[in-house]
Amino acid sequence: MPSVLSDTQIESYHRDGFLVLPDFASANACAGLRQRAVAIVDAFQPSDRRSVFTTNEQDRISNGEFLDSATGMWCFFEEEAFGADGQLRQDKSLSINKIGHAMHDLDPVFESFSYTSELAGVAADIGLTDALALQSMYIFKQPHIGGEVGCHQDATFLYTEPMTVTGFWFAIEDATLENGCLWAAPGGHRTTLRKIFKRAGSDNEGGTMFDELDPAPLPSPSDLVPLQVSAGTMVILHGLLPHWSDVNRSAKSRHAFSLHCISAGADYPASNWLQRSPELPLRRLDRSDRVSA
User: Structural domain boundaries of the chain?
Assistant: First the structure.
């Protein structure tokens, strides 16, 4: 597979734990993904158990719908979407935090965006030569109520032995200080994994829990640097890199698409919250084969 990244870019990624690639996705591709995400939300009919996405560990509740989303496309509401009366404070289209987590394998628009030779080439350039597409998220970061995503390491949520999870984050709209851009700790990936988010039971009704591995705190936002990027930019995120995004109080949304990949050669424990069914096996980014996790 031909290289996509330069030697300098590869060195920068391994030094910093992240790499910013402007103009990786075309304007047409971003517009198509945004249009499809909006259509999915428009067709979404919430159940009585309205799933709210939160990164606050004290408040996190992983119900069956969250765990079922590993093999589906589910819309999760913003924490501040509902008023005291339990009704939406704004239109549904402005209330969804994200869609997750298998659109890349279930929806042709997301599939076309995710499985490209260019992205497979980038993954190979940074050492992920056998990348499996594991999880996808379309993140809205809604105006005024777009929730904070606390400082975390992606390997907490998508654990492999050895650690291989890598995030490919695409700015579908401009990401700025005002609307909640990513912040990262340069070199922060050269550290330990602090905790693992795992299943507490044997089925999807058993919920989830955190196992603490290292009590050392992750960096505070003041120790991070902002990644203000324009639409079409891709940011590669090492699985141990601490990163964060602030609440969006601006009048502008900050749409983004995130695809997480792991190595086909790594062990993917059955205790991970995200488990794919045999009917929906993982696929390699280069589409060379299908592999079940």
Answer: 7-285
> pLDDT digit of tens for each residue in the chain (293 aa)?
779 999 999 999 999 999 999 999 999 999 999 999 999 999 998 864 555 655 444 334 456 778 889 999 999 999 999 998 888 999 999 999 999 999 999 999 999 999 999 999 999 999 999 999 999 999 999 999 999 999 999 999 999 999 999 999 999 999 999 999 999 999 999 999 999 999 988 777 778 899 999 999 999 999 999 999 999 999 999 999 999 999 999 999 999 999 999 999 999 999 999 999 999 999 999 987 655 55
Residue 11 main-chain phi, psi, to 5 deg: -65, -40
Choose the CATH number for 7-285 among 1.10.8.60, 3.40.640.10, 1.20.1280.170, 2.60.120.620: 2.60.120.620
How many whole angstroms separate alpha carbon 227 and alpha carbon 283?
A: 30
Contacts of 236 (CB under 8 A, 6+ apart): 13, 18, 19, 21, 122, 126, 166, 167, 168, 169
What's the pTM value of the predicted model, to 2 decimals? 0.94
